[in-house]
Design goal:
Structural class of chain B: mainly alpha
Oligomer: heterodimer
Radius of gyration of chain A: 23 Å
Number of domains of chain A: 2
Number of domains of chain B: 1
Number of strands of chain B: 4
Shape of chain A: globular
Number of helices of chain A: 14
Shape of chain B: globular
CATH topology of chain B: ABC transporter involved in vitamin B12 uptake, BtuC
Chain lengths: 349, 329
Amino acid sequence: MNERGLANAALEPAPHNAGFPKKSFSANIGKFRELGLLGFIVLLSLGVQLRNPSFLSWENINDIATNTAILSILTIGMMLVIVTRGIDLSIGATLALSGMIAALTVYEYPDLNPMIALLLGVAVGLVCGMALGFLVSRMGILPIIATLGMMNVFRGLTYQASGGKWVSAHQMPDSFKQIATGSVLGINNLVFIAIVIYVAAYFFVNHTRTGRQIYAVGSNPDSAQISGIKTGKILWLVYSIMGGLSGLAGVLWVSKFASAQGDTAAGYELNVIAACVLGGVSIAGGSGKISGIILGTVLLGILNNALPMINVSPFWQMWIQGTIILVAVIINAVVKRGIDRNNLMRRKI
Amino acid sequence: MEPRMIANKKPFSLKGFFLQWEWMLVVLFIAVTVMNINLSEYYWNYDSLRDATMSFLDKAFIVLPMVFVIILADIDISVGSIVALSSVVMADLYSQGVPMPLAMAICLAVGLLSGLINGILIVKFKELSSVIVTLATMIIYRGIAYIILEDQAAGKFPEWFSYLGWGYVGDIPFILIVFAVFAVLFGLLLHKTTFGRRVYAMGSNPTASRYSGVQVDKIKIIIFMLAGLMAAVTALFLTSRMGSTRPNIATGYELDVIAMAVLGGVSTAGGKGRMIGAVLAVFLIGYLRYGLGLINVSAQTLLIIIGLLLIFAVMIPNLKRKRASSRNA
């Protein structure tokens, strides 16, 4: 490489010409990640389809989409948090708290417009997220610790609010349960909400100044600060968005499963983080794409749905999911090493 | 040329001595004790205070290696799953006729092996960070536990096995003695050996310690193996105490353990923390739980209290530093 580079420099005055074929090759590798993930999803679906022909039926696909909608909503918030080098372990508890408060409200006032319950849940989540954002950005507490502590607090508050009891299906008015079962334009509400949020998020992270600033803060907080970005505000914003989305997800969750419990979604934060990681969001911060996390959540959703359909014992599912996550992140790391090496070679060092 | 002398010990200052985080914990501990005595007349009683340790010390074994892990600025969230896996393997082997001592040895070996796998993955794929690796292995290890035992419980251990969790040596619970021995060993390892000094060096500057000849990869693997081993020790005591095991035991232990280490003054930014602080935090949280349990404060309220305690514990030093830096500016 070195010799060829020298020879090129001697013979040709235009070095970018010589580097051109290399560049397109490495750009291809850059896309390989998501293509690979997509390919894996397609192969998996085809494999499952061969074993069980009802897998790719319209009903089942609809089922997968409805079941994945809540996860995918949370994944957006988590991606933003992880992009800023943070992590949020409290979302399961935030989800439970806002879901519980919404459920208790509709239990007390059955005639309430479900929209108000939805907004109430979002508001509760937003307050939780803002409290977290305050701790992280103003108090300088590391995200993993702040969210770990507040996870306990939110979970405790959930039990306090309900007095340890459940709000079950017959205590909820039908109008509230219809949030999850109703549909807009033939698409289930949950899926519709998820799509709207994804479109908004795509525009936000790619085409607004604040959205780009989130990535700047994540890839280099110091230079972001020096170049005039208010890093504290960005952090606060990110955790508030996460909280608001968790609140929304909480109401949707309670409405979908028609039950609000103290331990709703306990440990769900790990699924969400796993979906982000599968989708190529780097824990080191600064990188993560909407298209990636869509694939990540779809893969998790398909796994959840497909394994029971091909008669995999439920006791094997956890192991299979964990192994797929591990293998996916390792392949990702290896591919990325290849790209980096390629880039170094192009610089002719 | 005269060799330059570097003071290897800071000069002793009374103010500095009392401003350490550990004293804060001691004050908190006294406050909790006074509060508990006032709340319940049954609290201040030697027998019950002694026996309370048996109920909260099981997960404390993992706190000891977790201090090392966090000083390295890493984290291990798979420990709860390692507890479940090693416990389930032990119970399953015993029920298939393997003698109990051998099954217990295998339990420890499983913990060690799980830790080794964590360590190797983290060292080989540095870009993944310990959060992701142990998140994945956390799911995998518990998944294996589910494969082995499905939704069954396994138990019927020999009579003598319950001694681990319930037995006394003279007047003192066996688990307390074992914990004390391990705490001293880990404390010595961290504070009195070159290994310990290297751990601190790696935590505060991994690159510099690598260039100065510290075998960073080897040390990291050893520490994750220790975490796995102590998780298996916890599995022994927990299983003995419960008398049977299921694949879902010790769920959420990792977060409790990390919370105790952090409350003990170990900084997740790496390079800072002491064993004594973590041990104090174990007893602080243990007795707080026990005392509030006596007056029927629900486990849920305890969650809130412990969460807030954790937040304030890390907030106070940050506030102090902020004030100091704004005064200098």
